[in-house]
Amino acid sequence: MKMLRRLFARYEAYHEHGPLLLRYISVLGLIMLPVMYLLRPTRSPGAYDDLALRAVDCALLLGLMARKHWPERIKGAYLAYSYLVITACLPFTFIFTSLKNGGGAGAVANTFMAVFLVLLLADWRNMVVMLVAGAGAAVLGYFATTPGARIPADYIARLPLLIGTIIGASLFKYALEQATAERVRHAYASLAGSIAHEMRNPLGRIRHNLECMQEALPQPTTLNDPQLLDAGRTDALYRLVAESEVAVKRGLQVIAMTLDEVGAKPIDRAGFALLSAADTTRKALQEYAFQGDDEAARVDVRVTADFVFRGDETAYVFVIFNLIKNALYYLPAYPHARVTITVGDQQVKVHDDGPGIPYDVQERLFQPFASAGKTGGTGLGLAYCRRVMEAFGGTIRCESVPQKYTEFSLAFPQVPPAEVQALQQRAMEKARAAFAGKRLLLVDDDAAQRTTSRHKLQALGVEIDQATDGQRALEALARTPYDIVLLDLNMPLLDGYAVARSVRQGQVPLNRDVAIVAHTSEPAHIAALKARRAGMDAFVGKPSTQAQLIEALSEALQARIATQASVERRLTGRRILVADDAAYNRKTVAAYLRHVGVTVVQASHGEAVLQALRAGGGWDAIVLDINMPGMDGLQTAAAIRQLDPPLRDVPIIALTAHSDDETLRAAQATGMNGFITKPVDAAVLYKTLGELVSDTPAPQPLLRRTEGSAAVPDADALLNPSRLESYARIGMLGELLGEYVPELTALAGKLQRHAQLQDMPACADVLHSLLGMSGEAGAPALYQAVRRVYVPMVEAKAWPVQDDWAGRIAALAAETVQALNAYGAAQGARHE
């Protein structure tokens, strides 16, 4: 019995990817059996009429073809049924009919046809068993039903040839299976090695950061005395955690991209939105996990003309990541090479003056598993990039000259201006509706920045109050209810982080749950982490466009509304069953739910779930891991749906690490209502449960979160005319020039004095102000110059290595002031 089970297991493995081959052969048989009966030549008198046998075979094949109509309880026997059908319809029928008709050339041909068809339908071991069993049954049936039966001479004469054919077919089948297994093994090894190679970079970064974290931690002790960290070590830990988050995100994206490309998973166009090419490209550059400042300094973004395209932000950012990564791979051997990303004319071009790509490689560059001389690369990145661009309606092409340069061009279809304008108008109308009757507190120690932000937000019709520092902000929050706070992070005495912590800790009970948006020119990935840690809801960088600022405010407002309405009202007091064989995962989900007032019952396997349900009590939802030992999640869900009401109607959320389409379809087929992938995100868990346990749909975010960017046509230009024109349109150009121009000059002077004293904290404060002010004032060259100094000073506490760096910034500030004054004079003359 063990041997038979092992034999049948091989047959099951042969058809494990679905009964498609069996369905095809059943259709072929249903057509050919009656057709060949009707078309065969006139038989001699007394020939065997096999009409009844063919009718039985057709009935058996009809059952084989109609698998989807089988009752669920007997579908498990389908492969065993197919085993009997193949044996009966091929070797038995063909040989039995041939023997009854006295042999002949046609009989021998039919026998060889049976051997060939069985060869297609089973592995070599089961092929031999089917042929022997079918032939044996045919011979026995022939002798049992035929008086004076004898085996035809021509059958006996060709028996060695038939046996040789069976042996040869078995050997061929065995060799084919071995070759297929070897190819599969090599494919898996290649894929695993490729993913390991791609993961080495982010894992190496995380390992390095962990080592640095150990150095930043205080010395271990057995005492219970408090161990305090100084400001420098705290900043270092935040920077290392932020960099590690980016590394983890990159690693997960590599795995997701690889699996999507291997599985040819289609890109979902339903979530496409209109995106700014300049903003999204700069965001990609900000988020890219560079190996150091030197590597980051070798990549530039130049915007000659921004444009809008329709696509998915995550997919586009990953395309840019892949092209940057490919270019940087070769640059260590080319110390003077650079990477330039140019946005303009409905195209984004990524150009590097590295080694170039051989002409013969260029022809197959976008094919899966093709690589241009990289050791250990997946060869899937460019194939994925092509699929993304095709989904966007665009193209990607490569132009390269060996030993000179490589340039990848992403071309996008033009979006009609009327469509863009209509979308922007609809977005503004939605924003006005969302902020109608709302009250906002604007907190910033920079008067010019407060003025700029106030003018940007006036279009919303929101009531705006102002606070000049953190302490005054807390005083305002203590006496007046607000809907949202736009909070600068870098303020003297009481900074934005301290304000947010005070609010969330209940020091101003009137506004404990107010929506808070961080607004700062600090490095985005670090400031966003700190803001989230302090309890803020969204982050927007300085400078920011009106649209970016409104998007961040809308995100924070909707997130706070969703948290209060969805979580507290919808989930508090609910009773939810959480099932997962991994105790840590189970406890984590339970902790998330208890935090919002849910009564949680835990189970470690499917049988325990059914026992808990039958034990009584009302249930609002079940969170069910799919992969559990014994009765897995799919089987458990199917069993729940067979229970009596109301248990069978309890909403079920699938919890799994496998997000492929097949798993999703299987979960849906068993009656599951939701699908959450691991690791579980608390917000996603709350949102999914909230939608299932309430008839009121959860509120959707009005706009996507977007971080700030310089968004300038030319990073080397003194002025950004489009930005200045936008100030003129909203009537604040004169105010901008009147307040920013004198302040730029004053800050440049302060920077030189602090630089002479080697006062790094003071220089960082001045640079912080210069960075925000130059960006808001539409001064891209000054903004970029300040940023190149400020970011290393804040992140790495590194003093600039260039001589007279402060003097150069001051000189550039003077040029910028002169250009601003000239622009203002020209605008005044034009309006006179």
The structure class reads alpha/beta
Give the spatial strand order of the biggest sheet: 2-4-5-7-6
Radius of gyration: 36 Å
Q: Biggest sheet: strands, sense, closure?
A: 5 strands, mixed
Low confidence ranges? 369-373, 696-713
Helix segment tally: 30
Terminal residue distance: 101 Å
On the 0 to 100 scale, the average pLDDT is 80
Count of structural domains: 5
Helix content: 55-70%
Shape: elongated
DSSP E strands, number: 17
Beta fraction: 5-15%
In a nutshell, what does this entry contain?
Helix content is 58%, strand content 11%.
Describe this entry's structure for a reader.
The protein has 832 residues and is an alpha/beta fold. It has 5 domains: 2-157, no CATH class; 268-415, Histidine kinase-like ATPase, C-terminal domain (Heat Shock Protein 90); 429-567, Rossmann fold, CATH 3.40.50; 575-692, Rossmann fold (3-Layer(aba) Sandwich); 721-831, Up-down Bundle (Four Helix Bundle (Hemerythrin (Met), subunit A)). Helices cover 58% and strands 11% of the residues. It is built from 30 helices and 17 strands. A 5-stranded mixed β-sheet has the order 2-4-5-7-6. Strand 10, helix 18 (496-504) and strand 11 (515-520) form a beta-alpha-beta unit. Helix 9 packs across helix 19 (524-533). It is elongated. The N and C termini lie far apart (101 Å).
